[in-house]
Design a protein that fits this description.
The protein contains twelve helices and twelve strands. Strands 2-8-7-6-5-3-4 form a seven-stranded mixed β-sheet, sandwiched between helices. It is about 40% helix and about 15% strand. It has about 400 residues and is of the alpha/beta class.
Length: about 400
Amino acid sequence: MTNGAKGPVYLDNNATTAVDPRVVAAMTPYLTEIFGNPSSVEHVHGNRAQAAVAKARQQIAASLNARDNEIILTGSCTEADNIAILGAARARPERKHLVTTAIEHPGVMEPFRQLEREGFELTVLGVDEHGRVDPAAVESALREDTGLVSVMGANNEVGTIQPIGEIGEICERRGVLFHTDLAQLMAHRKVDVAAEHIHLASVSGHKAYGPKGVGALYVRSRSPRARVQPIMFGGGQEKGLRPGTVAVHLVVGLGEALEVAGRQAAADDQRLRAMTAKFLEVARGAIDGVELNGHPTERIATNISLSIPGVEPLALMHRLNPFFSFSASSACATEKVQTSSVLLAMFGDTARARQAFRVSPGRFTEAEDMRNFAHLLVETAADLRRYAA
């Protein structure tokens, strides 16, 4: 059941992914040989670093069907979210109304809460039992003074993919900027910001088999143009929106990770969907009452969120931690595990919400590992139910 000397099998790819070896290879020269500051364009070392940053920016833009000059390099997806939300709202202070959803990542929700403290009015939309946002509800929430809507591309806890293209079209038609956090989606498909009417988009490195500590923000330069007011100040890098020396090795890693994803996402998804379907078949066939959380079909292939009546997630994790690493809650804020706002929005304060846990295989997960986990889960759930009874 273990992964040899390496310890437990990793099944928590929605929290973070391992860095793809191809990404490591692309990054390594910029940690050793090509170490110049990309702002030092007056000499060869700086020029080489600048060229690497330019290539990475092109790769990131290509993954979004964006222009190179629309990509702002950041230190994380959360930082990109903050720049987008705070910056876009403050750039149009006359538009005091903002819209988001009850299932957003804290990197989105907390900037909105800050804007509320500054006098903006926030509408938080609910979701259906699958964790999906209704585009009609978004349209109904829009007002003449609505300035910004933010809806995530795919949910990190239950895997549901949101209809961002439909929502973006509604926003664009109504003259409202649309932002989406794409952290969980970029490893699964290319996003076309033009066709999907996206004006601002945040991207993560470490959710797409790239390094931690790097992200990117797409800011639309075409009509309708997204204006963003700086929230940070310094040397003027990244059009003044993200000042500070660019971490060349990390940016190179992000660019390479997204280029690899563009080539490999379809094959990854096909393999993972077959793997997860088999896992669910085993679990549902042997465990009474097991429930899949999230949309049954419109979901990312790396997410299996389950609730098992009579089985507490922490007890399950305690039993299985020596063999498998998975999650009882999203690992985004603190070490405290509690019922998440996503599950509460979907199910209320119910046993199903409290008993949810997340298994997330990824690019490097073997089918045998998932088979082993399924059988051990069946045995352990039965044992825990006997103990609870």
